[in-house]
Amino acid sequence: MEPRLQLGILEGARPLDPARMLREAGADVFSPHWGAMDRALVELVHSAGGAVGTWTVDDDTAVAWCKYCKPDSVFTNRPVEVGQALRS
Length: 88
Known about the structure:
By secondary structure, the protein is an alpha/beta fold.
């Protein structure tokens, strides 16, 4: 594997211990669905040295939740609109 390549875990639900999942998988990024993410999860993953990238952020509700939870990245089908909304 390319040494600079990051490994991520894609998850649709909120697991009990995402930090453990990262550790056991040797992953760098935890990627929950935005509805399964909260501030505590983001803080927990950050404290374990990981990053949070959430999906699929396509509407105003998801954007507002991301502004509140502050993940490191978002995945969207509407990059222009969502990017502008997140930066405003």
